[in-house]
Amino acid sequence: MKHGICCGPETAGARMKKKQPIMMSPCPRIHVPGFRECVKMSCKTLWAVGIVLVMLAAAGMAGPAGSEKGPAKGPTKKPGATTKPAFGEMGISGFHQVLKGGLPPVKRKHRALRYTSKLTQAFYVHVPAVARTETLGIFAFISNRDVQNLPPGYAKMLKVNELIFISPAGCGNKRLISRRGGLTVLGVLKLMQTYRIDPKRVYISGYSGGGRAGTMTAFYHSELFTGAMPMCGAMFPKRLADKKVSAYSYFPLGERDFQAARKRVRFALITGRKDYRYPFVKGLYEQGFKKYGFNALFCDIPGMNHFIATPAAVQRALNWVEGKTPAKKTGG
Fold first, then answer.
1. Domain ranges of the chain
2. Angle at 254 between CA 267 and CA 241, to 5 degrees
3. CA dihedral (150, 154, 158, 163) positive or negative
4. Which of 117, 188, 206, 239 gives 210 a disulfide partner, CB atoms 3.0 to 4.6 angstroms apart?
5. In 3-state terms, what secondary structure has residue 108?
6. Domain 93-330: what homologous superfamily?
């Protein structure tokens, strides 16, 4: 009979069940993972291994010499390495949990929108790397997709105009306007709490179905947005002469909100003749915005298809919204 600590069938537990005496040999056997057989080690060897393990554990807990805080946690920062800017700082670009600190108060709520959200809701935010003392504007964007990054070329345009770009994630065309518009409003209000914002330069935009949602949100919150620049899609809250255009663009709105938007918001509708929505956008501009006396511009961009507007096209619309360019030199 073999003695010692072993992983074989004749273990100490097995012998106890058989009521056999347990005898420990001076050279016990231990099981080493990866080996089928047990390894025989002398007692001196076992004592030596144990002492080494204890010393290694003590050295790991003590940390470097002269330190009382123990081992450093996480990777060590390399010399010259820079940390990624966080929300609230300048020069950020990426997805951030803008609402993490708490939902901003909404002084004037519209029943068509929902102003509730998880604090982990993601927003794509781009803040140009300008001086912290600068007062910035906001370019809010509602996408037709659930995930929207910064469109190509927009970084330079935003920096030149000192605008912050913000777009809520999970707000594509399959989402309700109550969610798309409500989250955009919450994101904009959070930016106004975090950065130095000029309230006269808070704009909303969007592409395709996002452009329609952005137009509606501008009507719902004319006290917040001073300009709207929808791309390849728009809406108007009145029944129009053309039934097809009216079916595409109509949404209900109270007369008070209608008149407030007519006085406060400047609308620049961006599209092009290759856009399949061109006839509808042009129709609602002529039969709606123009007929009812809105501060509106129809931006007919040469060669533009049904796609997100180029930075140059946005700049044209922005120049008119901010009163830098007369309508006759900008519109088509």
1. 12-61, 93-330
2. 65
3. negative
4. 206
5. coil
6. Alpha/Beta hydrolase fold, catalytic domain (3.40.50.1820)
